Amino acid sequence: MQLVNNQYTIDGIPVLDICNEFGVPLYVYEGAIIERQFNRMTEAFKGLNLKINYACKALTNVNILKYMKSLGAGLDTVSIQEVQLGLKAGYDPKDIIFTPNCVSFEEIKKAVEYGVIINIDNISVLEQFGTLYGNSYPVCIRLNPHIMAGGNTKISVGHIDSKFGISIYQMRHLERVVKNNNIKVTGMHMHTGSDIKDVDVFLRGADILLEYAAQFEELEFIDFGSGFKVKYSADDITTNVELLGKKLTVRFNEFCKAYGRELQIMFEPGKFLVSEAGYLFVKTNVIKQTISTVFAGVDSGQNHLVRPMMYDAYHHITNVSNPKGTNRIYSVVGYICETDTFGWDRKLNEVREGDILALHNAGAYGYSMASNYNSRYRPAEVFVLNGKAHLIRRRENFEDILSTQLEVDF
Q: Which part of the chain has CATH 3.20.20.10?
């Protein structure tokens, strides 16, 4: 989003025109930023046999999945429904990796029927898989390296108390299960958490994964997960993917040389690709001044963007209706019957009732975590590409709220 001639634009289109055409609250995604982020990763790891699998839990709209496919991405999925969305979007099953956690074995069997890559993070499940399939269907194994990494405990998934992955201290047991069930292991996987700032922390996990991967003789790829941090505020520290690319490329090439053949290197970025591409536009319903605070109350809330309330996440806020207004301090709050605050004590250009505000970095875990709490409708979604705004999801209505409910006569 850029300020041009005193008006904010996305890919040349005035933001207020988009909001007037499609209404608010409204999610808008900018294709050019997704492409920029994808190209950053491919450039950082150029020279390697690289596969980027988009972690679609971040934003699952089928049009976004199709766009990722057009850029050359595969798909990282965590549910059978995401697998089905990927197939619907036209992905070849071999370009979809399925990394579930605590799902029924029936869901894993369904994924096998679809022909996707299966990534298993539980010895019990691996043993069931081996008993049923033997070496007839290859698997990837997710290890837990016991590293605390990530910007919030809820998104740190590689530590000793995490439910994810097979502990590196269970390797002897893992090897027995693989050998006794004749399981063909073609991939090794690790994901330690989201919002990793320190390249060295990522590399420490990578070194552990490579050390244990060397024990498996039929590998075709190694998946290093993701967790790359993007900028949420002006002074935010982000993951230097270019530096990571240089350092990890050296390590990976050395590993492949010792292993005896070239393997494919995989990553599964979600937030890194789509977070900065997304905006949530909301309308200011009321300005309410109390004895201590000036509130800007908007027509949205934690039902549309839960990250500030769930993770204490910072999202920059811009008044797109009054870009030259005098700076004042506001707390931007939602219309849900809870304390759903998007931002405390924010310096914004003067906010008036009716002004449109933009919440930045709303592309990842925004709409995908939205709900109908308070029986509110979920907003529409728009995808801006090559100077054109495309409606990719209509706004919900009252019929949608009732669509799965069955009325019973008492």
A: 31-271
* Per-residue pLDDT tens digits for 215-225: 999 999 999 99
Which backbone phi and psi does 245 adopt, to 5 degrees? -60, -45
Name the active-site residue from 19, 56, 140, 337: 337
Domain 2-28+275-402, what architecture?
Beta Barrel (2.40)
What's the confidence (pLDDT) of residue 42? 97
pLDDT tens digits for range 77-107: 999 999 999 999 999 999 999 999 989 999 9
| CA 155-159-164 angle, 5° bins | 70
- CATH architecture type of domain 31-271: Alpha-Beta Barrel (3.20)
List, in sequence order, every residue forming a beta bridge with 166; answer none if it has no partner. 143
The gap from C-alpha 235 to its chain's centroid, in whole angstroms, comes to 22
pLDDT at 302 over 70: yes
pLDDT range class, residue 351, cuts 50, 70, 90 = very high
**pLDDT score at 159:** 55
Active-site residue flag, 56:
no
CA distances from 365 to 18, 57, 273, 361 (A): 22, 7, 12, 10
Beta bridge partners of 389: 384
Q: Give ranges for CATH 2.40.37.10 in the chain.
A: 2-28+275-402
Give the DSSP per-residue string, 138-172: -EEEEEE-----SSSGGGB-SSTT-SSSEEGGGHH
